[in-house]
Structure formats: C-alpha cells, structure tokens
Amino acid sequence: MKNFVIGAQLYSVRNLVQDAEGLKNTLKSLKEMGYNTCQLSGQSRDIPDEVVRDILEETGMTPVVTHNSMDDFDKELDALIRRHKTWNVKYAGLGSMSGEYRTSAEGFKKFALHINEIAKKLADEGLTFVYHNHAFEFERFDGVLGMDILFDTFCPEAQFELDTYWVQAGGCDPVAWIKKVNGRMDVGHFKDMAGCAENGQHHKMVPIGSGNLNWPEIIRACEETGVKYVEIEQDNAADTQCPLGQMKSSIDYLKTLGVTF
User: Fold this and answer.
1) What are residue 193's DSSP bridge partners?
2) Mean pLDDT on 91-120
3) How does strand 144-145 pair with strand 140-141?
4) DSSP of 49-113, one letter per residue?
C-alpha cells in the first residue's frame, strides 16, 4: 500500500496552532509520530506566510493542500495564489459551499459553474482547486444528488477532496464515491465514524480505526483510483484533552494496514 501518502490535517489540532511557537511545536510532534506531510487549515492567519514557510522547512513537514474560505477565492484570489506559491502548495481547497447555493439544484449548478471559473484561473498559475464535501451535498433535488450535480458540472480543472465521514453521514458509500471520482481526486480526507448516521444524531468523529468505516476497502479504492495524498482529519479532536493523542491513534492504526507516511 504505497500509492499515496498520508498526512495530518491541521484543523484537527487547530487550538494548538494559533501562534508561531504553537505551530512549530505541533508540527514537530506530528513529525515524531510519523507524519511527513500536512494540510494547512485552522492555523492562525496572523502568522505571516513567510514564517509558516520557514517553520515547515525547519520541522521537515511538507504541506500538500490548504482549506480556504469562499471569500478567499472570490475577493482575495491573487493573495491566495501568492500564499500557495510561498508555501509551495499545489492544491487549494474550499472547505464548504456557501449557504446560498445549497437549497436547490439550480444553486448547486450555479456554484459549480462559478467554481469552474476559479479553477481555470488557478490552473493557469499551476495550482489545482479541490472541493471538500460535507453531508448536505448528498441531499436529493428532484431525485438527483447535489453531489452528482457537482460531478456532472465541474470542469476538469476542478477536483474533489472526498471526506469519508461526510460521505457516510450523507447516506452514501465512501468506497463507491472514491471509485466514482476516479481521476478527479488527487487529495482526500480520511475521517472515521462511530455509531450510525440515522437522523444525523447518533454518530460522531473518532480516530481512524476506532469507528465503523471499512478502511481496508477505502484504502484499496484510493490505490486503485490514483489518489496521491490523504489527510487525516478529526474535527472534534481539538475539543478533547489531547488532540495530538487522537492523531497518534489514527496514524498508529493506519501503520498496521501498511499505508505510507
């Protein structure tokens, strides 16, 4: 299992990376666990981009993807591009669709067409746009999944960054969706679920391997479809007494399955 590289999504430990010293110490801790790559998301924007770059170099951590707001893409695209080039990050991710697009099939299509314009501009700069899903994309509009509207409308320059937990929470199969976006997902998110997704009330995020997702099949699907990077994310880890301990549990489990870090 060496076709893709596992990294740490810093949003999982966002409470620890709100200043330069915290970012450096957290990256060092993740490096000691075995993580060599990361997703830049959740760290304080008050840390200058050049300082973030220097900390990454000092700690030996390679950033592969980011998460950004819709405003970053709509209003600050030039700054976003400069930031990614400063950090030497190719993949620029959008963490979620804005609320005004979510209520109709027309909204989903309008969103996708707007993203296509952004994705093409990023491609001209050597960057790749990636879209991170939640559960709401799996709502049906006249029998059609919102996610299928995105799938059918996104241009080739716009990729998916499937989140396994949210696909499952949306009532769909993460393995099937990884296979469906074959060739359109260089970067994905591994996130585990304990409990069931019924009514959205009985499930929670847990370290990889302690929930009920089928990780051997998910990993196999990522290998078969050419995924390059996967970031471990556990949103609620930041709310625990030991966020880094949650991240260690995930990497330790995946090591038993032979994945590459």
Assistant:
1) 205
2) 97
3) antiparallel
4) HHHHHHHHHHHTPEEEEEEE-HHHHHH-HHHHHHHHHHHT--EEEE-S--GGGTTSHHHHHHHHH
